[in-house]
């Protein structure tokens, strides 16, 4: 048996917990919740005040030096499912509102304007993308962490909802000029292929993690032609996501859509680089030829 001393990150002792070889960090968090004001979901447990969060499934034998732990309060939490549903429902309804009720933004000019075919296609693409995201949140994604800080909800919704209004305003504007048909055809084809690839990737990742577990495995192609991208990058879901918005930008030839694509690419690149680094650290036999998000380059 091991006595684990529990402190806050401000070095205030909360008490001692008796742990065995089979005790996990998740179990320790439950015991901490009994003697403190910190619910399990609000706890970040680390071996040093400024150290990294220790995974819930880590056990005492794997943490032989762990005799003293520090608890950081992560603040009020909210479920990932709730966050994603709010993030994605906003753009779905905001864009539709601008498209079908143009007078909201453009006044009488909008009421008398013609809804171009390109704008209709863009509405369809935008709606399909966010509807797919909502359905994936409900039926596909499995999260290793159940919650996130509630403050992130406002930041994330501000990003998605704000960019949605910015893009929708320009594409549905009475003065919007559709690009040549060849641009529309190429953009729509790229969007369709990448949306399909993104879905295929998410389904593969879902099948790697049994329900109710936090199992992690090296993702590999599963026979679906669209998943062959796993041979070249660690996060093809991000690669396909960026590809979808590049297609949307070509389809509409709209500068705000391009800015939205660029912002998304920057953020997803950061996520991909982080995940790529973790994969290489966690799996010694991780494929060396893979890049993070762009084959052969990045």
TrEMBL record:
Domain Ubiquitin-like: 2-63
Keywords annotated in UniProt: Lipid biosynthesis, Lipid metabolism, Membrane, NADP, Oxidoreductase, Transmembrane, Transmembrane helix
InterPro entries: 3-oxo-5_a-steroid_4-DH_C, SRD5A/TECR, Ubiquitin-like_dom, Ubiquitin-like_domsf
Record's subcellular location: Endoplasmic reticulum membrane
Pfam short name (any one): Steroid_dh
GO cellular component: endoplasmic reticulum membrane
The organism's taxonomic lineage, starting at the top: Eukaryota, Metazoa, Ecdysozoa, Arthropoda, Hexapoda
Gene3D superfamilies, per database record: Phosphatidylinositol 3-kinase Catalytic Subunit, Chain A, domain 1 (3.10.20.90)
Topology with respect to the bilayer: Multi-pass membrane protein
Family: Belongs to the steroid 5-alpha reductase family.
Species: Diabrotica balteata (Banded cucumber beetle)
Gene Ontology annotations of biological process type: very long-chain fatty acid biosynthetic process
Name of the featured protein: Ubiquitin-like domain-containing protein
The keyword Oxidoreductase appears for this protein: yes
